[in-house]
## 1
Amino acid sequence: MTHQAPHPTTSSDDPDRVAAFEARIARGESIEPKDWMPERYRKQLTRMMSQHAHSEIVGMLPEGNWITRAPNLRRKMALIAKVQDEAGHGLYIYCGTETLGVDRHELVQQLLNGTAKYSSIFNYPTLTWADIGCIGWFVDGAAIVNQTMLAKASYGPYARAMVRICKEENFHKRQGYEIMATLAAGTPEQRAMAQDAVNRWWWPSLMMFGPPDSESSNSDELLRWRVKKKGNDELRQRFVNLTVPQATAINVVLPDPDLKYDEASENWTFGAIDWDEFWRVVKGDGPCNRERLAARNKAHDDGEWVRVAAAAHAAKRKPSASEAA
Amino acid sequence: MTKPPDEASGPPADSQWPLWEVFLQPPKGEAHEHAGSVHAVSAEHALQNARDVYARRGEAVSIWVVPSAEITASTPEDMGPFFDPGNDKPYRHPQFYKVPRGVRVF
């Protein structure tokens, strides 16, 4: 998500091959790892898929904070399962990214040293239990809208990872919405907690779809190559349209005085998004950017003995050259 | 015919372990199908990781794991000549044969 001039193909790409590639995309064919692709397509996919994978991994942190504090066993089991799913989703997408010729080690290093980007939403803190509900409802809800579209992406391994993820993501959203519905029907304190979480998560969730199409230089290219089939604004609108009735049903108020139904377009139109805040968080100055990176690095370092032990165990069990002979 | 490009040169020193391709057999009796890949130090470890990553919800009754470097695959460049012998034999398809009008063969 950087501002850069559109640069569809590099000069090293043979124009005939680019034309043939684009014709395949136009016919709706799936591009597979060993197929020829423009360098720029490979680069954009690597960028987008690795950011997506990192988001799944970092996404475990705000929720992991609440596993020990879940209000009861049912909620705790669900949250553990959800966080485990997020780890799995990260691995599906890392595996897809590796088909582009990148080593996972390289991607993990970029995440750990802070040069990789991930979804800005995970740089917001989870202050109360209602935040866990809001993440499932809003953040996973927004992810479903985005990933349902990506399940038809032109790059086969990415699309297939998305199909797998979409099947699991509905549980995430429903568990979050159930938490919110329960709190919103609870004591005055619980209702206030639910509303407070909605107030804090609504706008950052709308930012998850990325900058407006008019300001997103990556969008054009991604749309042209059918990595994405819909623009950021269309997806954002779809999410708002889906979410407004869900909020009404559980009596929480979305914090936007300008939110209203437009008969002509059949859309819920909404107020202006604070893009300055978005860019601030993307560029590293969100409430929890440093904390997330520190937690991720600590987890990686703390896990080192496991990696070393597993490698030593495997080496020990492998028949030595002399035994095999 | 070549090995996958990312495997040809072998993984770098700290590659988070070698790469294994994972194939799952769904419970309804279909053939094993490619699901994705995992990193693991050994075959046993790869099976466990494959179960945790790809079969958390009863997706599989059987899992195969294969070192990615051991897979030999056709290349897109082979597409034409390699598959060509199949394309010029229409008599391998039932539509090639004429059937009297009005008769249900199947």
## 2
Amino acid sequence: MTTLTLIWIVLPFLVGFIIYLLPKGDRYLALGGAFASALYVIPLFVQQTPINLRLLDNFGVSLILDPLAGFFILTNALVTMAVIIYCWHSDRTAFFYAQVLILHGSVNAAFICSDFMSLYVALEVIGIATFLLIAYPRSDRSIWIGLRYLFVSNVSMLFYLIGTVLVYKANHSFDFIGLRDAPPEAIALIFLGLFAKGGIFVSGLWLPLTHAESESPVSALMSGVVVKAGVLPLVRCALLIEEIEPIVRLFGVGTALLGVAYAVFEKDAKRMLAFHTISQLGFILAAPEVGGFYALTHGLVKSALFLLVGNLPSRNLKELQKQPIQTSLWIPLVMASFSISGFPLLSGFGAKVLTMKNILSWQEIGMNIAALGTAISFAKLIFLPHQPAVDLDHSPRKTNFWVAIAILLGGLFVANTVYYEAYTLENVIKPLATIAIGWLAYWLIFRRALVKLPVVFEEFENLIGFMGLILVLLFWMAVA
Amino acid sequence: MLEAFVLATILCGFLGIVLKKNLIMKIISMDVMSTGVIAYFVVIASRGGVFTPILGDTLRTNYADPVPQAVILTAIVIGFSIQALMLVGVIKLSQNNPTLEINEIEKSDRL
């Protein structure tokens, strides 16, 4: 299993570079690389016992492979495959596919790291690969969005590095578990880095602009998997160290509320999805024990939604209300929206029930409001007018689009079996009630609401400035 | 003492990133900050002593800790490659935004 793991880690990078050498086979190679990851996950779930690997002695790389990581890796594999298939007939060059695969490999590496230094390297590679993908169209706007992303992530990673060396100073090792004996400033610095990378709370406000302005496949990758590379280490720290768990849970609730608060008022479809990603990351952190399953369902749904919304005639929801969309697009859109609102029969339901079961009593009010907000914001997509398509388009591009969507939505149906115990009467009624109240609120209030929340917090300097504030906040929380 | 200076460097870099208006200046500030972080690793490594840990004829006890130094090498390489990438991006941006003032870029971005 050790050799297999090592091969699996290196494979995406290797294939990524081979794509440069054999640009003709770019798509096949990229798809093969992602598929290998999907296959590798199977033994992880079968085996159930975590595998701990320690490479290169005590100060080297330590990896942990368990079902929790398995969920994240599976999400990564499925989303990457869907994105590659989606792009199959576009005129993207081999460079794009190589970057997608390198990104895939580095995200996998970040998921299985269990020491801070390897995690740092993985996160930085993710940063570079993401920048190249965002800036792929080479327009001024895309370059600026990418630069902004790279800036925010690099500054936060510098703080993270200081925290890392403080952990080393206290333990003579970089392992996650060392955070327990580390001084509070180490916790604050490391968490700041992970928050900014993972889009948590106000540090995550770089995310809406970045995710909304990138091309649809890139947004799908970023929202589906890349942000989770910052979230999984937080979940791991929370599971390892009891003192940290309340901090993570609290920020989970805060993030979930902040995200939906923006999402319900947003009039732009892609921006709404991006804000909603922030809130869903909060759900993952609010119940760290079951975060893996939630991350899987969210990753699949969010990528499908980004790909679908990218094919709508407009991004503005007000315009879409006047302009009927094709029913064939509307049906998967509704399925994805239902799953994310927690409607039974789709795995979003199981994930929500599982999360709600594992939250503490003080979190309950916040998380229920966040769930309600989710139902409200997705009512905007569900109640879009639609009509049967006039011209039936049978180009291969269209077929690939449907294959990609089928992988993602099919995954949602299959994932249902993970937690089939959720189907009890009591469990079914609660999400239905939440959705009903959400839809009612949408029709009565939010459909007409003209509130526009300020974008001032998303300005570049404020993003960096907020890092300082969050650092102070985290420090005092860690001291307390 | 040395630690205080290093932390001051990091702080200077951070303030530079927030306060400077020009994109190039921001990138240079980021470099100052990362220099500070690298120096901090070196300072931590030299807690036990400053001698290079190479086995020789005279055995010493006050060796420097090689692990943070080895590890920071990776960070230096990553840092400079990111900076190179950013500067390439800035070159591209400067064709249409010759001043590289961040307010101007954000304003034209929002239109």
